[in-house]
Amino acid sequence: MKYLQLVWAALARRKTRTVLTILSVLVAFLLFGLLDGVRAAFNAGGTLAGVDRMVVSSRFSIIQPLPESLVARVRATPGVRRTTWANWFGGYYREPKNQLIIFAVAPGYFDVYPDYGVGKPMLEAFERTRTGVLVGASLAKRFGWKVGDKLPVMGSIFPNKATGETTWQFDIVGIYTAPSAKSRALEQQVLLHWKYFDEANAYGSGDVGWIIVQVADPQRSAEVAQAIDALSANSDHETKTQTEQEFNLSFAKQVGDIGLIVTAIIGAVFFTLMLLTGNTMAQAVRERIPELATLKTLGFTDRGVLGLVFLESVLLIVTGGTLGLVLASILTPIVSAASGGMLELPPIGLASWLTGFALMVAVGAIVGVLPALRAKRLRIVDALAGR
Amino acid sequence: MTALVEIRDVSKAYVRGRQSVEVLHHISLDIRQGDFLALMGPSGSGKTTLLNLIGGLDSPTSGNISVGGKRIDQLGGTALAKWRAANVGFIFQFYNLLPMLSAQKNVEVPLLLTKLSAAERRRNAAIALTLVHLADRAHHKPNELSGGQQQRVAIARAIVSDPTLLVCDEPTGDLDRQSAEEVLGLLQVLNREHGKTIVMVTHDPKAADHATHTLHLEKGNLVEQAA
């Protein structure tokens, strides 16, 4: 610890450069903190144990539909308390940039999902109107919609059987508000009748996108899932029963391997960081050659000087990195809240902190190794003579 | 009085590119304990090279160097560094203080290599600064001190671990006459009252006048020894 004063003195020698370097490290670790949660979420497998809702979808692809007849068989599976189902209905409002998350939902959907906060009067209005849709409060606020409005949607997949076109017109019969901040993301959705969708789309009927299962005993979820998947084994519609988290992630994974993309971004950031800080450390040591030679003159060994430069490099990265992770911890809930529930970043957990610290030490060691070796190899008489 | 430094048939050659240049030729010399020796000579005569060898900053190409009975030419890098820390104080022309540390902290640097506690390091550094009449400047950084004051801090740093030998490379080369006199006066006090053996390289005959002995080097050879 007594040598820390020498290390701090070296870092304080060029304050502006040190502050800028720490800032760049801070930004890199801020990104790491924010993105590592995303990466972890996308790479997490999820476990069926203890969950009371599961999603049954095609084993091969979430865009592969399942036969409606499967719903009754799933409902009859021992351990299943309730079932409902839904279909994806892609489309946009007015312009392609206004993409909407639209689901065609079956009867009983809101019994399984009380998270939407759809009350009885709203549900009755929905059931009364064949072309009715329920929209989330956040989405309604964004586009200025109100109950009674007509909602024209340009479908991106399904043409309307009646017109042959992909233009659909719905009636807004209710605007729901998610009861908890945790389910605020649901307010970004538009929900329409599955029955209407099934009858009116030109691509045929009798298909469901996925089946949602509520189990009687969450402790037996894995067993129930196995039994459900066994129903379709060796058929042309084999199923995969999984957690909602896994199912939701599989939607996003259609874009690509998000975990890999995030890892690649973090990798690129750290590679750039290493070039930047490596250059800074090399420059810092180059400027201090007479000082390092003086330390050696006074009796510091080659290894001692190597250790000082190494410590300086690690300390620089650990300082910036810790500040970055602290900032990420502060920003994570703020970003999640600001996204209206669309982006649920997990808090920076112990695993992220440990990985972060390991990265800080590794980056500090990598960028410090060459300058430290240079300092170690310094010949006093040459350095003092300016050679 | 016994010889503190014994130099026997020492030569030193540097390799520059493909050429080997011998800068010291078969030097033999004794420096007695308590001496204040001035090494003089024109540029390139080998003064600083000889000083570096005496201070253990470099090793001879051939020959023996003993300081206090220890063959320092046979020591490896780490052992030599530890020997320097315990036995030699260095004073340079351009002070070589660490710019971000206060005078007090600069003086404490050699003590970081000892087992002294922080409080003991502070106390010893304060005593050394008092000896060079800079106790009131302990918390000033080098750039807040004059050249003479910086050199006095460097002297305090050189003596703080109580070495037997002080090696000084042009200690007054960057100072005005008055500051130079103050520094030389301090070196004399350290030599006479504290028994430090001093070897000083200088171009300045007036500086050499403060020494008890003067040696002249020319083209790597010892040419004159005056008592």
Quick recap of the structure?
The complex is a heterodimer of chains A (387) and B (227). Chain A is α+β, with helices and mostly antiparallel strands and 387 residues long.
General description of the model:
- The complex is a heterodimer of chains A (387) and B (227).
- Chain A is of the alpha+beta class and 387 residues long.
- Helix content of chain A is 52%, strand content 17%.
- Chain A is built from 14 helices and eleven strands.
- In chain A, the strands form two sheets. Chain A has a six-stranded mixed β-barrel with strand order 3-4-8-5-7-6, surrounded by four helices. In chain A, strands 2-9 form a two-stranded antiparallel ribbon.
- Chain A is elongated and about 90 Å long.
- Chain A starts with a helix and ends with a helix.
- Chain B has 227 residues and is of the alpha/beta class.
- Chain B has one domain (34-59, 76-226): 3-Layer(aba) Sandwich (Rossmann fold).
- Chain B is 32% helix and 30% strand.
- In chain B, strand 1 and strand 2 form a beta hairpin.
- Classes of the chains: A alpha+beta (387), B alpha/beta (227).
- The A-B interface holds A 2-3, 5-6, 9-10, 12-13, 290-291, 294-304, 380-381, 384-385 and B 48-49, 52, 55, 57-58, 77-78, 81-82, 84-86, 90, 92, 96, 98-101, 105, 109-110, 112-113, 118, 157.
